[in-house]
Write a structure and sequence with these properties.
The chain is of the alpha/beta class. It contains ten helices and 13 strands.
Length: about 325
């Protein structure tokens, strides 16, 4: 009898011990799951950075070097005012050069206005230099004339009707710093060969459809200042004469020049871009065909096709949902 009671007590003790052990395990498991959830949540927040903000790149990466803004304009003073006013607020700009090819000199009113908006919009007490590079001849080659007094190696070549957010410009500048011999910009174009062996110029929709590009237009692009000298002095004069005669394709000529020097493709940086102007060479009839003629003519001058195609696109993942 005693043996039976003792046996039942032992069984109850074992059962109670097993229950306590099970509860302890469940508690530890719950604590472990809770800890892992908190850890993963914190890690995910820190890594994925869902909180969007408008801060530019860290100042150390922007202050180390700056760039010269080179603005090409032609009788669109209102657009020029808006463009200069915007880019004066970009932290990487150290000087602004206006490529002036109009028959009349810039008015005192225009100069004073631009100087005032630069002073008003520049940040951190920066002194941004303003210069008008006046040309006697009206030629598209003027935008790439050699400039002796540049403070920085980097040139941001822009048309007067292009507005890009400063944080995007600064990001592209950082990309350019990693590959300064390459052209880095925001407007890609492509070329291909048809069945007859003729080169064809493709606009934005061709880039979008194929996912391929081989040129970056200098309406919004970073280049090294040395290419201004090469374009003006070393590039065959026949190419500059062709650009002046046709009033087109100076940007394609620069793409050929850089590709010929590097044997590398340009770099396309994805970014918001606003065109505030409504007219330009690209709005004229037959634009695509004329650009194709330029490509074929340049190939003959170079004796080869230097342009290199690529599918690479650089995206600032901090401000993009899909990248």
């Amino acid at each position: 009898m005693r043996t039976g009671v003792s046996s039942r007590r032992t069984m109850r003790q074992r059962a109670a011990s097993a229950v306590r052990s099970s509860k302890i395990k469940e508690l530890l498991l719950c604590l472990g799951i809770t800890f892992m959830f908190c850890f993963v949540a914190g890690f995910t927040t820190s890594v994925m950075g869902w909180k969007c903000h408008d801060d530019p790149l860290p100042r150390s990466s922007v202050r180390s070097k700056r760039y010269t803004l080179l603005v090409n304009t032609w009788r669109r003073h209102d657009l020029l005012k808006r463009s200069v006013s915007h880019y004066a607020s970009c932290s990487g700009v150290d000087s602004i050069h206006i490529i002036w090819s109009e028959p009349d000199l810039p008015s005192e009113h225009l100069i004073n206005f631009l100087m005032s908006v630069i002073e008003l919009n520049s940040k951190d007490g920066r002194q941004i230099e303003l210069k008008f590079d006046v040309n006697e001849e009206d030629s598209l080659n003027n935008r790439f004339k050699e400039l002796k007094d540049l403070k920085s190696d980097a040139i941001l070549s822009m048309d007067d009707d292009i507005i890009i957010p400063c944080r995007t410009v600064d990001f592209a500048f950082n990309v350019w710093e990693s590959t300064p011999d390459t052209m880095v910009g925001f407007v890609p174009r492509v070329h291909w060969v048809d069945k007859s062996g003729k080169y064809i110029y493709g606009g934005w929709w061709s880039v979008w459809w194929t996912g391929t590009y081989s040129m970056i237009l200098t309406k919004a692009a970073f280049i090294h200042k040395k290419y201004l000298s090469i374009y003006t002095i070393e590039m065959p004069a026949s190419i500059r004469e062709y650009v002046t005669k046709k009033r087109n394709c100076e940007d394609i000529a620069m793409s050929f020049l850089v590709a010929n020097a590097t044997d590398s493709p340009p770099v396309w940086v994805k970014g918001a871009l606003s065109e505030i102007g409504s007219t330009g060479i690209s709005s004229l009839g037959g634009h695509k065909a004329k650009r194709g003629e330029c490509i074929n003519w340049f190939v003959n001058e170079y004796g080869r096709m230097p342009l290199v195609s690529t599918t690479m696109k650089v995206v600032d993942s901090r401000f993009s949902w899909f990248w």
